[in-house]
Request: fold
Amino acid sequence: MTDDRTPSASSATAPDGFPPSPGGHDPEVLRRRALDALLTARARTTALTDSVDEAELTAQHSPLMSPLVWDLAHIGNQEEQWLLRAVGGREALRPEIDGLYDAFEHPRAARPSLPLLAPAEARTYASDVRGRALDILEAAPLHEGGRPLERAGFAFGMIAQHEQQHDETMLITHQLRSGPIALTAPAPPEPTDAASLPAEVLIPGGPFTMGTSAEPWALDNERPAHQREVAAFHLDTAPVTCGAYRRFMADGGYTDPRWWAPEGWDMVREHGLDAPLFWHRDGGQWLRRRFGVTEPVPDDEPVLHVSWYEADAYARWAGRRLPTEAEWEKAARHDPATGRSLRYPWGDTDPTPEQANLGQRHLRPARAGAYAAGRAPSGAGQLIGDVWEWTSSDFLPYPGFVAFPYREYSEVFFGPGHKVLRGGSFAVDQVACRGTFRNWDLPVRRQIFSGFRTARDA
Reply:
Protein backbone atom coordinates (compact mmCIF):
# COMPACT_ATOMS: atom_id res chain seq x y z
CA MET A 1 0.00 0.00 0.00
CA THR A 2 1.52 3.26 -1.08
CA ASP A 3 1.99 6.08 1.42
CA ASP A 4 1.67 8.84 -1.21
CA ARG A 5 -1.98 9.59 -0.55
CA THR A 6 -2.13 12.17 2.22
CA PRO A 7 -1.25 15.79 1.45
CA SER A 8 -1.63 18.70 3.81
CA ALA A 9 -4.98 19.57 5.32
CA SER A 10 -4.93 22.77 3.31
CA SER A 11 -6.00 20.74 0.26
CA ALA A 12 -9.26 19.64 1.88
CA THR A 13 -12.28 19.71 -0.38
CA ALA A 14 -15.54 21.33 0.60
CA PRO A 15 -16.62 19.37 3.68
CA ASP A 16 -20.33 19.63 2.96
CA GLY A 17 -19.80 17.38 -0.06
CA PHE A 18 -19.23 14.30 2.10
CA PRO A 19 -22.27 12.05 2.47
CA PRO A 20 -23.36 11.92 6.10
CA SER A 21 -23.19 8.67 7.99
CA PRO A 22 -26.60 7.28 8.89
CA GLY A 23 -27.91 7.56 12.44
CA GLY A 24 -27.26 5.03 15.14
CA HIS A 25 -23.54 5.67 15.75
CA ASP A 26 -23.18 6.20 19.50
CA PRO A 27 -20.61 9.02 20.00
CA GLU A 28 -19.16 7.42 23.12
CA VAL A 29 -18.78 4.04 21.43
CA LEU A 30 -17.05 5.75 18.52
CA ARG A 31 -14.84 7.74 20.91
CA ARG A 32 -13.65 4.53 22.58
CA ARG A 33 -13.17 2.90 19.20
CA ALA A 34 -11.11 5.86 17.97
CA LEU A 35 -8.97 5.86 21.10
CA ASP A 36 -8.28 2.14 20.76
CA ALA A 37 -7.47 2.49 17.05
CA LEU A 38 -5.06 5.36 17.65
CA LEU A 39 -3.30 3.61 20.52
CA THR A 40 -3.03 0.33 18.61
CA ALA A 41 -1.51 2.12 15.63
CA ARG A 42 1.01 3.97 17.77
CA ALA A 43 2.09 0.81 19.57
CA ARG A 44 2.80 -0.77 16.21
CA THR A 45 4.64 2.30 14.92
CA THR A 46 6.80 2.23 18.04
CA ALA A 47 7.61 -1.45 17.61
CA LEU A 48 8.60 -0.95 13.97
CA THR A 49 10.87 2.00 14.73
CA ASP A 50 12.32 0.90 18.08
CA SER A 51 13.43 -2.45 16.64
CA VAL A 52 16.31 -0.91 14.67
CA ASP A 53 19.08 1.53 15.55
CA GLU A 54 19.41 5.16 14.50
CA ALA A 55 21.50 4.36 11.43
CA GLU A 56 18.84 1.93 10.19
CA LEU A 57 16.09 4.49 10.83
CA THR A 58 17.78 7.16 8.72
CA ALA A 59 19.01 4.88 5.92
CA GLN A 60 17.11 4.39 2.70
CA HIS A 61 16.88 0.62 2.33
CA SER A 62 15.41 0.84 -1.16
CA PRO A 63 14.73 3.73 -3.56
CA LEU A 64 11.15 2.40 -3.63
CA MET A 65 10.66 3.32 0.02
CA SER A 66 11.22 6.22 2.39
CA PRO A 67 13.64 6.11 5.33
CA LEU A 68 11.76 4.83 8.35
CA VAL A 69 12.34 8.12 10.15
CA TRP A 70 10.51 9.97 7.36
CA ASP A 71 7.44 7.78 7.90
CA LEU A 72 7.59 8.38 11.66
CA ALA A 73 7.61 12.17 11.37
CA HIS A 74 5.10 12.12 8.49
CA ILE A 75 2.66 10.23 10.72
CA GLY A 76 3.00 12.95 13.35
CA ASN A 77 2.74 15.77 10.82
CA GLN A 78 -0.46 14.44 9.27
CA GLU A 79 -1.96 13.97 12.72
CA GLU A 80 -1.02 17.55 13.60
CA GLN A 81 -2.54 18.97 10.43
CA TRP A 82 -5.81 17.03 10.51
CA LEU A 83 -6.55 16.54 14.21
CA LEU A 84 -4.83 19.48 15.91
CA ARG A 85 -5.35 22.14 13.27
CA ALA A 86 -8.37 21.10 11.15
CA VAL A 87 -10.48 19.51 13.92
CA GLY A 88 -9.12 21.15 17.06
CA GLY A 89 -8.46 24.60 15.65
CA ARG A 90 -5.07 24.66 17.39
CA GLU A 91 -2.15 26.81 16.38
CA ALA A 92 0.43 24.98 14.27
CA LEU A 93 3.24 23.33 16.21
CA ARG A 94 5.74 22.83 13.39
CA PRO A 95 4.42 24.55 10.24
CA GLU A 96 7.95 24.78 8.85
CA ILE A 97 8.11 20.99 8.34
CA ASP A 98 4.83 20.60 6.44
CA GLY A 99 6.60 20.67 3.08
CA LEU A 100 9.25 18.14 4.13
CA TYR A 101 6.59 15.57 4.94
CA ASP A 102 4.23 16.25 2.05
CA ALA A 103 4.19 12.94 0.19
CA PHE A 104 3.23 14.63 -3.08
CA GLU A 105 5.99 17.22 -2.94
CA HIS A 106 8.96 14.86 -2.58
CA PRO A 107 9.29 11.45 -4.28
CA ARG A 108 10.52 8.63 -2.07
CA ALA A 109 13.92 8.37 -3.72
CA ALA A 110 14.63 12.03 -2.88
CA ARG A 111 13.55 11.99 0.77
CA PRO A 112 16.93 10.99 2.31
CA SER A 113 18.44 14.24 0.99
CA LEU A 114 15.90 16.39 2.86
CA PRO A 115 16.69 18.02 6.22
CA LEU A 116 14.52 15.51 8.08
CA LEU A 117 13.96 15.44 11.80
CA ALA A 118 16.45 13.19 13.56
CA PRO A 119 15.02 10.03 15.19
CA ALA A 120 14.86 11.44 18.73
CA GLU A 121 13.26 14.67 17.53
CA ALA A 122 10.79 12.79 15.33
CA ARG A 123 9.75 10.61 18.27
CA THR A 124 9.28 13.61 20.54
CA TYR A 125 7.28 15.46 17.90
CA ALA A 126 4.97 12.52 17.19
CA SER A 127 4.44 11.96 20.92
CA ASP A 128 3.67 15.63 21.57
CA VAL A 129 1.14 15.69 18.72
CA ARG A 130 -0.50 12.50 19.98
CA GLY A 131 -1.00 13.85 23.49
CA ARG A 132 -2.74 16.94 22.15
CA ALA A 133 -4.80 14.88 19.70
CA LEU A 134 -6.12 12.70 22.51
CA ASP A 135 -7.21 15.82 24.38
CA ILE A 136 -9.14 16.91 21.29
CA LEU A 137 -10.71 13.46 20.93
CA GLU A 138 -11.91 13.57 24.54
CA ALA A 139 -13.80 16.81 23.91
CA ALA A 140 -14.94 16.31 20.29
CA PRO A 141 -18.75 15.91 19.97
CA LEU A 142 -18.68 13.19 17.25
CA HIS A 143 -22.47 13.50 16.81
CA GLU A 144 -24.30 13.15 13.51
CA GLY A 145 -25.11 16.84 13.20
CA GLY A 146 -21.53 17.99 13.74
CA ARG A 147 -18.92 19.12 11.28
CA PRO A 148 -18.16 16.48 8.64
CA LEU A 149 -14.61 15.86 9.84
CA GLU A 150 -15.86 15.22 13.38
CA ARG A 151 -19.06 13.41 12.43
CA ALA A 152 -18.93 9.82 13.72
CA GLY A 153 -15.26 10.40 14.57
CA PHE A 154 -14.32 10.32 10.88
CA ALA A 155 -11.10 12.36 11.16
CA PHE A 156 -9.83 10.22 14.04
CA GLY A 157 -10.61 7.04 12.13
CA MET A 158 -8.95 8.47 9.03
CA ILE A 159 -5.77 9.25 10.96
CA ALA A 160 -5.71 5.81 12.62
CA GLN A 161 -6.06 4.24 9.17
CA HIS A 162 -3.34 6.52 7.79
CA GLU A 163 -0.91 5.51 10.53
CA GLN A 164 -1.65 1.81 10.03
CA GLN A 165 -1.11 2.21 6.29
CA HIS A 166 2.31 3.66 7.03
CA ASP A 167 2.97 0.85 9.45
CA GLU A 168 2.40 -1.54 6.55
CA THR A 169 4.71 0.60 4.42
CA MET A 170 7.37 0.44 7.14
CA LEU A 171 6.95 -3.32 7.36
CA ILE A 172 7.66 -3.47 3.61
CA THR A 173 10.84 -1.49 4.32
CA HIS A 174 11.77 -4.03 6.99
CA GLN A 175 11.36 -6.79 4.40
CA LEU A 176 13.59 -4.90 1.95
CA ARG A 177 16.34 -4.06 4.46
CA SER A 178 19.39 -6.23 4.98
CA GLY A 179 21.15 -6.79 8.25
CA PRO A 180 20.26 -8.46 11.55
CA ILE A 181 16.78 -9.82 12.13
CA ALA A 182 14.70 -7.08 13.74
CA LEU A 183 11.19 -8.54 13.85
CA THR A 184 9.83 -11.92 14.94
CA ALA A 185 6.33 -13.35 15.30
CA PRO A 186 4.74 -16.76 15.83
CA ALA A 187 3.57 -18.84 12.90
CA PRO A 188 -0.10 -18.51 11.91
CA PRO A 189 -2.51 -21.34 12.77
CA GLU A 190 -2.62 -24.45 10.62
CA PRO A 191 -5.76 -25.18 8.58
CA THR A 192 -7.95 -27.94 9.95
CA ASP A 193 -9.83 -29.04 6.82
CA ALA A 194 -7.76 -27.85 3.87
CA ALA A 195 -7.57 -31.32 2.30
CA SER A 196 -11.36 -31.52 1.98
CA LEU A 197 -11.92 -28.08 0.51
CA PRO A 198 -13.00 -27.79 -3.14
CA ALA A 199 -10.59 -26.05 -5.48
CA GLU A 200 -13.21 -23.47 -6.41
CA VAL A 201 -16.65 -22.26 -5.42
CA LEU A 202 -19.59 -21.09 -7.54
CA ILE A 203 -20.77 -17.53 -7.02
CA PRO A 204 -24.35 -17.28 -8.35
CA GLY A 205 -25.24 -14.49 -10.73
CA GLY A 206 -27.46 -11.57 -9.85
CA PRO A 207 -27.37 -8.16 -8.21
CA PHE A 208 -25.66 -7.22 -4.97
CA THR A 209 -24.87 -4.06 -3.05
CA MET A 210 -21.28 -2.91 -3.64
CA GLY A 211 -19.55 -0.26 -1.54
CA THR A 212 -20.98 1.37 1.56
CA SER A 213 -22.86 4.42 2.74
CA ALA A 214 -23.11 3.14 6.32
CA GLU A 215 -19.54 2.43 7.47
CA PRO A 216 -18.63 5.53 9.53
CA TRP A 217 -14.91 5.46 8.72
CA ALA A 218 -15.14 4.27 5.13
CA LEU A 219 -12.97 6.37 2.83
CA ASP A 220 -14.28 8.29 -0.13
CA ASN A 221 -13.51 5.67 -2.77
CA GLU A 222 -15.60 3.05 -0.90
CA ARG A 223 -18.71 5.26 -1.18
CA PRO A 224 -21.56 5.29 -1.98
CA ALA A 225 -23.34 1.94 -1.78
CA HIS A 226 -24.78 1.02 -5.16
CA GLN A 227 -26.22 -1.96 -7.01
CA ARG A 228 -24.06 -4.10 -9.28
CA GLU A 229 -25.11 -6.99 -11.48
CA VAL A 230 -22.58 -9.81 -11.63
CA ALA A 231 -22.89 -12.89 -13.83
CA ALA A 232 -22.30 -16.30 -12.25
CA PHE A 233 -18.64 -17.29 -11.99
CA HIS A 234 -16.29 -19.73 -10.27
CA LEU A 235 -13.63 -18.45 -7.85
CA ASP A 236 -10.66 -20.14 -6.22
CA THR A 237 -11.52 -21.20 -2.67
CA ALA A 238 -8.12 -19.92 -1.47
CA PRO A 239 -5.39 -17.69 -2.90
CA VAL A 240 -3.00 -19.28 -5.40
CA THR A 241 -0.23 -21.08 -3.54
CA CYS A 242 3.53 -21.05 -3.99
CA GLY A 243 3.37 -24.67 -5.13
CA ALA A 244 0.85 -23.87 -7.86
CA TYR A 245 2.90 -20.87 -8.92
CA ARG A 246 6.04 -23.02 -9.11
CA ARG A 247 4.28 -25.24 -11.64
CA PHE A 248 3.74 -22.15 -13.78
CA MET A 249 7.44 -21.34 -13.44
CA ALA A 250 8.50 -24.92 -14.22
CA ASP A 251 6.35 -24.89 -17.37
CA GLY A 252 8.31 -21.92 -18.70
CA GLY A 253 5.92 -19.28 -17.47
CA TYR A 254 8.58 -16.56 -17.40
CA THR A 255 9.93 -17.47 -20.85
CA ASP A 256 6.72 -17.69 -22.87
CA PRO A 257 5.30 -14.35 -24.08
CA ARG A 258 1.90 -15.94 -24.79
CA TRP A 259 0.84 -15.46 -21.17
CA TRP A 260 1.97 -11.90 -20.67
CA ALA A 261 0.48 -8.49 -21.31
CA PRO A 262 2.95 -6.60 -23.57
CA GLU A 263 4.06 -4.27 -20.77
CA GLY A 264 4.50 -7.25 -18.44
CA TRP A 265 6.62 -9.10 -20.97
CA ASP A 266 8.77 -5.99 -21.34
CA MET A 267 9.20 -5.96 -17.55
CA VAL A 268 10.23 -9.64 -17.49
CA ARG A 269 12.86 -9.13 -20.17
CA GLU A 270 14.18 -5.82 -18.84
CA HIS A 271 14.72 -7.14 -15.31
CA GLY A 272 15.40 -10.79 -16.08
CA LEU A 273 12.55 -11.99 -13.89
CA ASP A 274 12.12 -15.72 -13.30
CA ALA A 275 10.38 -15.90 -9.91
CA PRO A 276 8.52 -13.80 -7.32
CA LEU A 277 10.49 -11.12 -5.54
CA PHE A 278 12.74 -12.40 -2.72
CA TRP A 279 12.90 -15.93 -4.21
CA HIS A 280 16.19 -17.46 -5.37
CA ARG A 281 17.27 -20.91 -6.47
CA ASP A 282 19.88 -22.87 -4.56
CA GLY A 283 20.66 -26.07 -6.44
CA GLY A 284 17.37 -27.83 -6.93
CA GLN A 285 15.51 -25.88 -4.24
CA TRP A 286 13.69 -22.57 -4.26
CA LEU A 287 14.40 -20.42 -1.20
CA ARG A 288 13.00 -17.07 -0.11
CA ARG A 289 14.11 -14.28 2.17
CA ARG A 290 11.51 -13.23 4.73
CA PHE A 291 12.35 -10.47 7.23
CA GLY A 292 15.98 -11.52 7.36
CA VAL A 293 15.36 -15.27 7.42
CA THR A 294 16.23 -17.47 4.44
CA GLU A 295 13.93 -20.48 4.23
CA PRO A 296 12.52 -23.00 1.73
CA VAL A 297 9.51 -21.73 -0.18
CA PRO A 298 6.44 -23.42 1.39
CA ASP A 299 4.30 -25.03 -1.30
CA ASP A 300 0.98 -24.66 0.52
CA GLU A 301 1.27 -20.99 1.47
CA PRO A 302 -0.25 -18.25 -0.73
CA VAL A 303 2.31 -16.85 -3.15
CA LEU A 304 3.49 -13.39 -2.15
CA HIS A 305 5.34 -10.45 -3.73
CA VAL A 306 4.03 -10.85 -7.27
CA SER A 307 3.07 -8.00 -9.57
CA TRP A 308 -0.25 -7.66 -11.35
CA TYR A 309 1.49 -8.70 -14.55
CA GLU A 310 2.71 -11.94 -12.93
CA ALA A 311 -0.73 -12.67 -11.48
CA ASP A 312 -2.35 -12.04 -14.86
CA ALA A 313 0.19 -14.24 -16.66
CA TYR A 314 -0.37 -17.12 -14.24
CA ALA A 315 -4.14 -16.87 -14.68
CA ARG A 316 -3.82 -16.97 -18.47
CA TRP A 317 -1.46 -19.96 -18.26
CA ALA A 318 -3.97 -21.76 -16.02
CA GLY A 319 -6.80 -21.11 -18.49
CA ARG A 320 -8.47 -18.76 -16.06
CA ARG A 321 -8.50 -15.03 -15.33
CA LEU A 322 -8.25 -12.59 -12.44
CA PRO A 323 -11.62 -11.72 -10.90
CA THR A 324 -13.04 -8.27 -11.39
CA GLU A 325 -13.28 -6.04 -8.35
CA ALA A 326 -17.06 -6.44 -8.31
CA GLU A 327 -16.76 -10.22 -8.49
CA TRP A 328 -14.29 -10.22 -5.62
CA GLU A 329 -16.56 -8.09 -3.43
CA LYS A 330 -19.64 -10.13 -4.21
CA ALA A 331 -17.81 -13.32 -3.24
CA ALA A 332 -16.59 -11.69 -0.04
CA ARG A 333 -19.73 -9.87 1.11
CA HIS A 334 -22.93 -11.16 -0.48
CA ASP A 335 -25.11 -13.42 1.66
CA PRO A 336 -27.56 -15.19 -0.68
CA ALA A 337 -29.72 -16.30 2.26
CA THR A 338 -30.62 -12.73 3.17
CA GLY A 339 -29.63 -10.76 0.07
CA ARG A 340 -27.51 -8.50 2.29
CA SER A 341 -23.95 -7.37 1.77
CA LEU A 342 -21.99 -8.09 4.95
CA ARG A 343 -19.19 -5.96 6.41
CA TYR A 344 -16.88 -8.99 6.31
CA PRO A 345 -17.13 -12.47 4.81
CA TRP A 346 -18.22 -13.95 8.14
CA GLY A 347 -20.72 -11.23 9.08
CA ASP A 348 -20.83 -7.74 10.53
CA THR A 349 -18.58 -8.17 13.59
CA ASP A 350 -14.99 -6.96 13.70
CA PRO A 351 -12.30 -9.54 12.88
CA THR A 352 -10.98 -11.91 15.54
CA PRO A 353 -7.70 -13.88 15.45
CA GLU A 354 -9.76 -16.96 14.58
CA GLN A 355 -11.21 -15.34 11.46
CA ALA A 356 -8.36 -13.51 9.73
CA ASN A 357 -4.60 -13.01 9.65
CA LEU A 358 -4.26 -9.27 10.26
CA GLY A 359 -2.29 -6.69 12.21
CA GLN A 360 1.24 -8.09 11.85
CA ARG A 361 0.26 -10.79 14.34
CA HIS A 362 2.16 -13.19 12.07
CA LEU A 363 4.89 -12.21 9.66
CA ARG A 364 3.63 -14.43 6.86
CA PRO A 365 0.40 -15.63 5.25
CA ALA A 366 -1.31 -18.65 6.76
CA ARG A 367 -1.38 -21.83 4.72
CA ALA A 368 -4.12 -22.12 2.12
CA GLY A 369 -7.37 -23.24 3.69
CA ALA A 370 -6.77 -21.68 7.10
CA TYR A 371 -9.30 -19.62 9.08
CA ALA A 372 -12.40 -21.72 8.59
CA ALA A 373 -14.32 -19.33 10.86
CA GLY A 374 -13.63 -16.50 8.41
CA ARG A 375 -15.08 -18.04 5.27
CA ALA A 376 -17.79 -16.31 3.27
CA PRO A 377 -21.27 -17.78 2.67
CA SER A 378 -19.93 -18.72 -0.77
CA GLY A 379 -17.35 -21.01 0.86
CA ALA A 380 -14.37 -18.93 -0.26
CA GLY A 381 -11.80 -18.36 2.46
CA GLN A 382 -8.95 -16.03 3.37
CA LEU A 383 -10.64 -13.15 1.58
CA ILE A 384 -9.62 -10.86 4.44
CA GLY A 385 -5.99 -10.85 5.55
CA ASP A 386 -3.04 -13.03 4.47
CA VAL A 387 -2.32 -11.41 1.05
CA TRP A 388 -3.61 -8.45 -0.90
CA GLU A 389 -5.36 -9.88 -3.95
CA TRP A 390 -4.91 -8.35 -7.38
CA THR A 391 -8.11 -7.96 -9.41
CA SER A 392 -8.46 -7.32 -13.13
CA SER A 393 -10.07 -3.92 -12.53
CA ASP A 394 -8.68 -0.44 -13.00
CA PHE A 395 -9.08 1.90 -10.03
CA LEU A 396 -12.17 3.96 -10.88
CA PRO A 397 -14.76 5.95 -8.90
CA TYR A 398 -18.13 4.52 -7.97
CA PRO A 399 -21.28 6.21 -9.34
CA GLY A 400 -21.94 9.25 -7.16
CA PHE A 401 -18.35 9.47 -5.88
CA VAL A 402 -17.53 12.61 -3.88
CA ALA A 403 -13.94 13.39 -2.90
CA PHE A 404 -13.52 13.92 0.84
CA PRO A 405 -11.69 15.36 2.60
CA TYR A 406 -9.12 15.87 -0.16
CA ARG A 407 -8.85 14.94 -3.83
CA GLU A 408 -5.39 13.42 -3.45
CA TYR A 409 -6.49 10.43 -1.43
CA SER A 410 -8.30 8.76 -4.34
CA GLU A 411 -9.37 11.00 -7.19
CA VAL A 412 -5.95 11.79 -8.63
CA PHE A 413 -5.21 8.05 -8.93
CA PHE A 414 -8.35 7.10 -10.87
CA GLY A 415 -7.74 5.66 -14.32
CA PRO A 416 -6.11 2.76 -16.14
CA GLY A 417 -2.68 3.29 -14.57
CA HIS A 418 -3.54 1.64 -11.26
CA LYS A 419 -5.01 -1.81 -10.59
CA VAL A 420 -7.23 -2.61 -7.63
CA LEU A 421 -6.22 -4.98 -4.84
CA ARG A 422 -8.70 -6.24 -2.29
CA GLY A 423 -8.84 -8.03 1.03
CA GLY A 424 -5.79 -6.86 2.95
CA SER A 425 -2.75 -8.84 4.06
CA PHE A 426 -1.13 -10.06 7.26
CA ALA A 427 0.47 -6.61 7.41
CA VAL A 428 -2.85 -4.72 7.51
CA ASP A 429 -4.65 -3.73 10.68
CA GLN A 430 -8.40 -4.28 10.90
CA VAL A 431 -9.07 -0.52 11.05
CA ALA A 432 -7.74 -0.26 7.49
CA CYS A 433 -9.29 -3.44 6.15
CA ARG A 434 -12.94 -4.36 5.55
CA GLY A 435 -15.09 -5.92 2.87
CA THR A 436 -15.43 -2.59 1.05
CA PHE A 437 -11.83 -1.37 1.44
CA ARG A 438 -10.08 -0.65 -1.85
CA ASN A 439 -6.33 -0.64 -2.31
CA TRP A 440 -4.62 0.18 -5.58
CA ASP A 441 -1.12 0.19 -7.01
CA LEU A 442 0.89 0.19 -10.19
CA PRO A 443 0.80 -3.18 -11.99
CA VAL A 444 4.62 -3.47 -11.75
CA ARG A 445 4.67 -3.39 -7.94
CA ARG A 446 6.25 -6.46 -6.31
CA GLN A 447 7.53 -5.28 -2.92
CA ILE A 448 3.99 -5.02 -1.56
CA PHE A 449 2.38 -7.99 0.23
CA SER A 450 0.41 -9.01 -2.84
CA GLY A 451 -0.93 -12.31 -4.08
CA PHE A 452 -4.06 -13.29 -6.01
CA ARG A 453 -6.72 -15.87 -6.74
CA THR A 454 -8.23 -16.76 -10.09
CA ALA A 455 -11.73 -17.03 -11.54
CA ARG A 456 -13.55 -18.42 -14.56
CA ASP A 457 -16.94 -17.85 -16.11
CA ALA A 458 -19.69 -20.24 -15.02
Q: What stands out?
A: Residues 27-50 form the longest helix (24 residues). The chain has two domains: 9-176, 186-458. Confidence is low (pLDDT under 50) at residues 14-23. DSSP finds nine helices and 14 strands in the chain.
